[in-house]
Amino acid sequence: MPAPAPLRPATPDDAPALARLYALAGFGLPLVVWADWARPGETALDCGARLIAASDGEFSHAQALVAHDGAEVLGCLLGWRLEGPPAAPSHPLYAPHAEVAALAEGAWYLDVLAVAEAAQGRGLGSAMLARAEDLARESGAAEIALDVADANARARSLYARRGFVERARRPFVKTGWAGPWRDLILMAKPL
Fold first, then answer.
1. CA Rg value for the chain
2. How confident is the model at residue 178 (pLDDT cuts 50, 70, 90)?
3. At residue 189, does pLDDT exceed 90?
4. Which of 61, 76, 112, 147 is most buried, taking the most CB atoms under 10 A from its CB?
5. Separation CA 166–CA 100 (nearest Å)
6. Does some domain include residue 97?
7. DSSP line for the chain
């Protein structure tokens, strides 16, 4: 098995690839949100890339690391330390995410871990998760937390193998979105 791709801080130029990975990780949910926020004539994916290229916001390139092979972005990692109560969700579909994040206050929160389909099965997800744990320790957090869909068996298996345990569940909001899951699961691991 080849070594996982190296990680580097994301740049605004990575925004289109990050938007695709974020949509992949969210199984299309971000596309529904971005469609609501799109400017006239802008696709949902283009809206996501525009928002990600901005220097602030919920999902900014400035908070992300990308795995790359020198030519293209193969994966991304986005997380931060949760300080204080979370902000109100920016879209009703994000309400379950805000609810589980509120239960992990003080933790380092892994918001997105995504690997492009063509790069899956090479250990990249495991390598990025290990880096997320390092970042969590460096932040001084006592634990690392994340959310995952109940039906995302592959991701849940990876997290369980790394010592994450389920802490809470919240039902997904299905208005305007027909994703295959029922619940968003909060998983956490002490550091």
1. 16
2. confident
3. yes
4. 76
5. 11
6. yes
7. -PPPPPEEE--GGGHHHHHHHHHHHTTTHHHHHHHHHPPTT--HHHHHHHHHHSSSSSS-GGGEEEEE-SSSEEEEEEEEE--SSPPPPSSGGGHHHHHHHHTTTTSEEEEEEEE-GGGTTSSHHHHHHHHHHHHHHHHT-SEEEEEEETT-HHHHHHHHHTT-EEEEEEEPP-TT---S-SEEEEEEEE-
| pLDDT of res. 164 | 98
pLDDT exceeds cutoff 60 at 2? no
Provide the pLDDT for residue 88.
Answer: 81
Range of the domain at 12: 7-190
> pTM of the full predicted structure?
0.90
Average pLDDT in the 146-175 region?
93
Number of structural domains the chain divides into? 1
d(CA 139, CA 85): 18
> Is position 156 within any domain?
yes
Is 1 inside any structural domain? no
